Fold:
Amino acid sequence: MKHASLALLAGLAFFVMVALSNPLSAEQPAAGDTIVKLTYVTMKDMADYFTPKHLRRPLVSSLDLPNGKSRGITCNVTEQFVEFDTDLDGKVDTRIAQGGKTVEVMISDEAGKKRKYPIMTWRDTEVDTNLVADVKPWYYSTLSAVTGTIEGKKIFIIDDNCNGTYNDFDADAIVIASAKCGWFLTPVMELGKGLIEITVAPDGSSASYHPFTGPTGSIDVLSKFGKASFKPQVCGVRTDYHTFGVLRPDGKPSLVPVGKYSLEGAVIDRTIEVLGGAFPTFDVVQDATTKVEWGGPFTMLFMQSPGPDYPRAFYSADPGKHTFFCEPPYLKGEHGEVYVGSKDWCMPGRALESIDPEAPTKYFFVAEKATFNIEILDVKTRKAVNGQKFYTGTKEGISLLCPTYYYWLPFTWEYKDLRGTYILRVTCPTSKAFKEAVYEEKIELK
Structure:
């Protein structure tokens, strides 16, 4: 699928999931709670929905799902097909030979209560077989959700971490049916009529809730989002205990409990996400609105990790080979948040990865979102001394469907007899999202 053809995510759910100092799951209703019966549904159109961590798990000899006595459902995985035990008798009985297929396996709780659990199979067709000679991996993700009506809003709770339960805060997702986007399930949420505290039965059979009675304030993440040609589709903030979404479809500030918050991240579209990076923490006080300032003007981020599990983007001069090289940079907002290629939502499941199988994966932007102009400037005249400047970071491929399209190569330039101090200038003149971004730093050619 071409990235350019991907539509932007639809309107967001009219709710806010809020952080409290509670355990990381919800099970028992409190006295006086309103109890709502939930029913199981198969999310056949799950590809049309956005949730923050819809895990894609590797298919191995045992699915990590409850089988009544412990966990594990028998599978047989080969290069050509996968076979499943769908009735918990310990023997495989259903064969799938291609990705994109729905399989209903049977799961069981400790009491022996059985129910069907739908999953979607995936086959990674994007492996470069010139680099990887092993069996092409198979994956699965959940299509299982429960649905009901709370405060007049139909909701879906999706088992995003694919473990067979629906009450995992900061792991499972909640989506309003009228929207296609959601955020993590958290103990408190806003449905447009104020905040409620919610608990969910582990098996997803019911939910219960009551009004939140603590002090509240508001967060506004749109009015101070500056100098950008795009708007976030989802935005999440975090306290010490939980994360929650704070972007309402009507653009109004989101009601939250008072406290200290940090910017956890955001999603621009299916190929760009935002990390909190060095963004400063901020306070929400009672009966007041905190306006979060973020966005442009933008610059590039080199030589620093944008977040946990994100390796640094390097540039360097090799005096032995008289060659300057530069990796694709991340982009950084004025207040420290970092814009990266989406490792979770970029179709077909990856951003630009290193072509070197020994190198750490770095989630850079696909070429449709950011191409770069790399200039080495004379300090006095500010004239470029390098010839080739245009840089996509993308290895050439036959088409967007070619697996090699999803790898990056560094920008290289032989500086030959040039020596001394120069200026590295990086811009994105053809990028719709980051065309005003600029980075300058002095470098030494030895």
Notes: Residues 94 and 440 are 58 Å apart (CA to CA). Confidence is low (pLDDT under 50) at residues 1-26, 128-133, 396-405. The longest strand covers residues 259-269. The chain is about 0% helix and 40% strand.
